[in-house]
Amino acid sequence: MSNCPHHNLLLLEAPAPRRRCRHCHLTIREDELDGGFCPECYETSGKRRYEFETLAGADGEIKYRCEDCGLLITAAGDRGPNRRQGA
């Protein structure tokens, strides 16, 4: 185990939120939804379907990397790494 105090943290880019089509279950990054409709449904049936659910997990997480030891740290998006829950 490392004795690094993790004082030199680098904020890593947060991943784009992912969406899942309620019809064909295609999972796609939100920034890839160019027209706002599901590209898979449009390609297979010609229908523009806009019904998506946001997937839990990756969105809302913030990742940091310690520049001294390389440790990856994940924190919930609504709290910073130095804030206590309920603060």
Describe the protein.
There is one protein chain. Helix content is 8%, strand content 28%. With 87 residues, the chain is mainly β. The chain has a 3-stranded antiparallel beta sheet, with no helix packed on it. A 3-stranded antiparallel beta sheet has the order 3-2-4, with no helix packed on it. The longest helix has 7 residues, at 39-45. It is rod-shaped and about 55 Å long.
Task: Give helix % range.
Answer: under 10%
Sheet bearing the most strands, described? 3 strands, antiparallel
Low-pLDDT segments: 78-87
**How many alpha or pi helices?**
1
First-residue to last-residue Cα separation: 30 Å
Please tell me the overall pLDDT: 80
Q: Give the beta-strand count.
A: 6
Strand content: 25-35%
Would you list the SSEs in sequence order as H and E?
A: EEEHEEE
How do the strands of the widest beta sheet line up side by side?
1-5-6
Radius of gyration: 18 Å
What is the 3D shape? rod-shaped
Secondary structure category: mainly beta
Task: Output the keywords.
single chain; 87 residues; mainly beta; 3-stranded antiparallel beta sheet; 1 helix; 8% helix; rod-shaped
Describe the secondary structure blueprint for this structure.
Blueprint: E1 9-11, E2 18-21, E3 27-29, H1 39-45, E4 52-54, E5 61-66, E6 72-76
Antiparallel strand pairs: 1-5, 2-3, 2-4, 5-6
Quick rundown:
It contains 1 helix and 6 strands.
